[in-house]
Amino acid sequence: MKKDNDYEHILELFRESVPVFDVLSDVTRQNIIMLLADKKYGLNVNTITELMPLSRPGVSHHLKVLKQAGIVDNKKSGTENYYFLTLKEPIDRLKDLITSIENSCTLK
Predict the structure, then answer these.
(1) Angle of helix 56-68 relative to helix 27-37, nearest 10 degrees?
(2) Residue 102: what are its φ and ψ, rounded to 5°?
(3) What is the H or E stretch that residue 56 is in?
(4) Most Cβ neighbours (<10 Å): which of 4, 14, 34, 43?
């Protein structure tokens, strides 16, 4: 039988991962992530808007959600904010969840 603290630990990891799951479940945010994936210096809202069938306020909303989940961050250059991926922490969190499940559950 698995220890209660293993169970609680996995539940906590699931809870911590919910914002990442929510963010990644949206197709528009997936597209923004992919746009940013190969841009070393990031993109500004106007450029992202030009590349997507979405209004500037819509893009800004999705970037805000991505930022709150730790998927993107921004840096200011002049009057523009450039958004770039910051995936290390969210990916590490998901890896911890997967590893804990693998170590605590019977997998077939």
Answers:
(1) 80
(2) -60, -40
(3) helix 56-68
(4) 43
